[in-house]
Each structure stands twice: as C-alpha cells, then as structure tokens.
Amino acid sequence: MALKAVHVSDVPNLDQVPQNASFSLYSTRLPKGVELGRGSLNAPKFAVIGHRGHGMNVLQSSDIKMKAFKENSIVSFNKAASFPIDFVEFDVQVTKDDYPVIFHDNFILTREDGIVLEKRVTELNLSEFLCYGPQKEVGKEGKPLLRKSKDGKITEWNVETDDSLCTLQEAFEQVEPSLGFNIELKFDDSVLYQQDYLIHVLQAILDVVFGYAKDRSIIFSSFQPDAALLVKKLQDKYPVYFLTNGGTEIFLDVRRNSLEEAMKLCLEGGLDGIVSEVKGVFRNPGAVPKIKDHNLSLLTYGKLNNVSEAVYIQHLMGIDGVIVDLVQEITEAVFDLMKPTTNNIEEESLSQGDDENIKLKTKPQFSQKELSFLLKLIPQLIQI
C-alpha cells in the first residue's frame, strides 16, 4: 500500500495535513486490563497514544484535522477510542476545592464586556471552572472560551465538534473502558511548588484514580520532577514516567535538560520510563540503548510524531510508543509500515563451513520500503 500520510517535507508546517491522508483501518488495541510493569509497556506491539484525546487543537490552523474535536474532552477521548490506539494522554490539574479537572493551559480565558479576562485554573472552584464553554444543562449558556497562543495572540476556541469541560471522574465514567489513560500531572513551569502542596494535589488525583479506574490501564507522567517522584512514592500500582524536552529547551532545573538527566532521575527515584520530545531522541540516538539497558520504557511526543516516517524509524530504534495528534493517520500507518511483508526473500540455506553464506545471513537486512523511509527521513533529521 502506498504511503499517503504526512511527509517529512511538511514538518515545518504540521498544522497543514493533506486531505488524502488515509489508510485501511486495522485493530491493534491492547487487551483489556493489560498490566503495565516497570521497564516495559508489556505490550506485544508499538503503542500509539492520542495526544489530548483525538489530538490537540491548533486554532489558528486552516486544517480541519487540527480543530475537529475539542481537545481534552469526553467527545475527543471517545472519538480516539474508535481507532486502534492504546491510550489517550491528557492533562490533569486540581481546582481550589480539590477536584481534578482535565485542561492543558495554566490559565483559562474569557471575554466580558469586550475585555479579555484571565484566571489560573488552580485558583478556580470546580463550579467556576465548569462555567466556561458549552454547558451540559440544556439551554444554559457558558462563558466564551478563548485561548492564548505562544505568540500572545488571543483566539476564539472554535472547533467543529465542541464539548463541555470535564473532570477526571467524568472521564473514567464516560470514556470507553478498554482505552488506557496516560494522565499527565500538570504543573506550571514558572511556579516553585512546596512538597506539601504537591502531595495534597497528587493525593486528590489518586483518590479519583483508585475510586474509578477499575481495570483501566493507567500511566502517570509529569514534567515536574518532584511530582513524578512523589506520585511513585504515594502509590505503586501504576507506572510513572518522567516527561522531558530531551535537551531541546533549557530549564533552571537541570533534571529537565537532557535524556541522561531524565534517566538518572528515573533510576534514582524508581520511575518506570521516560517520555521525551522526539527531537531530543533524534538528536541523541545513543541514549536510546542506554535507557533500554536500564530496563526503562521510552515514549515520545512532538510534532514529528505526526510524520509516519518519523514514527517508523522510532519503531526500528526500539522506542516503545508515540503520542500523536493525527490518531487515524498514524494508527493506520503503523499497521501498514510494520506488518510483515509478503515478498521477503527466503534466506539461503547454509552449508557448514560456507563463510560467504554466513556473512550474507548475519549482515542486517532491510527491505526496499525500509531503506526508502530511512533515506528520506535522516537528511531532514540532522537539520532539526
């Protein structure tokens, strides 16, 4: 089957996705109730995880795929569940009155009397948080929901299929139960958190998880090193992964500045794996075997994971899975790229003492398709 998903040449503009990006659909869902153990997803395959559900929203994009479903919403999670993915990733914060809610940004924006108002999510009560955007109650109108982009531009949060804001408990109750949850413990990079506060917030989240998870597969992850270490100490049922930019950005906390530091944190704190920006992995591929040698799992996130070739090379590198925005395109491409080929050349039988045949057999072999993808991808990666 010919490759028709996003190509490497599109990397600088990944919010523009070709309309014909499509493959045949095949089921690759992990078995219900699969246990996740230290150092491995214990999955028989390469895992695909939906970013914020069906994919994050890029509101300024002209591509409908980037704003088809409200991110971090029940409708987005269940839409993602209709494709053969293993988990959805989403961001959890805790309101002022101790309710875990699902929302990515640190601040929530609205407009009143022509003025844009901004409030920190963790300084709102649950009722205040839920009053933004579409409302569950018929006939009730919520406050307009806006979003600020990285360049400071304020945009109306308009998507094709909207949904109300939700709590973590609602996600457990209303999302397809066979779909795993990758729960990112969300904290503000600009805030210095005290341990007592972190424990309080994490315990509020754990109370909901242990009350409603049942047999659902769960992964915890966080960019906040202390939060990752603490949630591992507070429970030992679910694996905990440390999120890192892998050296693509520099922070005051050195634990966040490289894959080597991430690995050190995991080993010292008994964490189960690393989730790295994919560019960090491609810039430092030598770290991958070191991470695997220490029995740690490795997942990646980032725009390059919307490129099928980039996903495929990660599979060849031994990475355990990817977090993606283009759920349908990447899950279908994963099957197409990784299914056994039907035209493999049969290995020649070896006669004892035939040195030339031994060399032919032990030399790594790649199919034409593999070579094509590698040759297309590598020149682009070294320019990242």
From TrEMBL:
One Pfam family per UniProt = GDPD
Please name the source species: Cannabis sativa (Hemp)
Q: GO:BP terms for this protein?
A: glycerol metabolic process; glycerophospholipid catabolic process
Q: What InterPro entries does the annotation carry?
A: GDPD (IPR051578), GP_PDE_dom (IPR030395), PLC-like_Pdiesterase_TIM-brl (IPR017946)
Q: What is this protein identified as? A: glycerophosphodiester phosphodiesterase
- Out of the domains of life, which is the source? Eukaryota
Query: Which ranges of the sequence are coiled-coil?
Result: none
Could you say which protein family the record assigns here? Belongs to the glycerophosphoryl diester phosphodiesterase family.
